[in-house]
Amino acid sequence: MQVADIKTGQIVSANIPDHPAGEPWLHGIGWTPDESEVWQVSSNSDPHIYVWSMLDPMAPKLKERLSLKSERGAYWLTFDLKGDYAYVSHDETEIFNARTRTSVGLIGLSANMLEMDFMDGKISRVGDQYGIGRAASD
Questions:
Q1: Which of its termini does the chain have fewer beta carbons within 10 Å around, N or C?
Q2: Half-sphere exposure (CA, 13 Å, Cβ side) for 26?
Q3: What gap in Å lies between CA 92 and CA 28, rounded to an integer?
Q4: Which residues, 6 or more positions from 6, have their beta carbon under 8 angstroms from its beta carbon?
């Protein structure tokens, strides 16, 4: 994983210790909505998700390695708007409780997620399949 400071152009590379062989997927990475963590898929042969602490965005720290139910790696992940759940697409879409980091179920395979929240019968917020982070800017 690499992090770039847009103002300075500085790039920081964070490496996974004991990473299995294989090319990493380039698009399987997402910020939690509060931007405190980045979750990253690895490669087609590595059935894990890597969770990085981003409390210091220019010094990512590996926090945890989560195992997928699949024997293959994932290719996409995203979060619901509140950050309660992570949706990880591999053979199926595996749902993780993002707070406890436990797998809570499987749904059909899809990287195309759309969340619509309603208030008083009207759409109040919409999320999509991109784990872009949603913290308010200072």
A1: C
A2: 0
A3: 15
A4: none
Which amino acid, one-letter code, is at 25?
W
Retrieve residue 72's tokens: 């293959």
The domain limits of the chain are: 23-127
pTM for this model (two decimals): 0.81
What is the tens place of the pLDDT at every residue in 18-33? 766 666 655 688 889 9
Token pair for 39 = 């979750």
What the block records as the tokens of 87 is 């949706």
46, 75 Cβ separation under 8 angstroms: no
Tokens found for residue 106: 């499987």
**Shortest CA distance to 131 belongs to which of 32, 52, 34, 25?**
32
Angle at the Cα of 24 (from 80 to 86), degrees rounded to 5?
Answer: 15
In the predicted model, what is the mean pLDDT of residues 78-103? 92
